[in-house]
Amino acid sequence: MNGETVGIVGNNPKFAAGCLDINSSIKGARFVRFCDAFNIPLLTFVDVPGFLPGTSQEYGGIIRHGAKLLYAFAEATVPKITIITRKAYGGAYDVMSSKHLKADVNYAWPTAEVAVMGAKGAVSILYRGKENTKQYEDEYIEKFGNPF
Question: Which PROSITE patterns does the annotation name (predicted)?
Fold first, then answer.
């Protein structure tokens, strides 16, 4: 940026919908620590729907490896800017240099969604067994998903 070196961390929504898995958590943590060691500021683009589900991820220790990324961002002393581009759901959002980890500046596009889970998942839990869940989903999006 303006001739200065910046470390960029981001999720790739074209691969596993941008979910964090074991390999991406390890790679991200290593990169964040590298940037911190050489005093390179971090720019994080967040589009993360959560951690990749599955027994192979759970048996492999996704929580332990995800915590490595969280810890790397938390202890990094370089300037950190976070931009939420689309989805920022659940614990995976916290791991990605969230406001809770003391990122210096946090931005979100007007269409960004910051929540525990998506509207469809929330409605399926809140209105389990009821008919016309599409109506409830639309109401949920209008109430909680609308920036205005």
Answer: COA_CT_CTER (PS50989)
CA angle 97–48–126, rounded 5-degree value: 115
pLDDT in tens, 115-143: 877 778 888 888 887 887 888 888 887 77
Distance of CA 57 to the CA centre of its chain: 17
Please provide the DSSP assignment of 72-113 as one string.
HHHH--S-EEEEEEEEEEHHHHHHTT-GGGT-SEEEE-TT-E
CA gap 37, 33 in Å, rounded: 6
Closest by CA to 49, choosing from 2, 112, 103, is: 112
The residue type found at 56 is S
| Residue 106 tokens, joined | 């946090």
Please give the Cα distance from 47 to 85 (Å, whole number): 6
What is the tens place of the pLDDT at every residue in 12-57? 888 888 888 999 999 999 999 999 999 999 999 999 988 888 888 8
Cβ atoms < 10 Å from Cβ of 21: 20
Which CATH fold topology does 7-116 show?
2-enoyl-CoA Hydratase; Chain A, domain 1 (3.90.226)
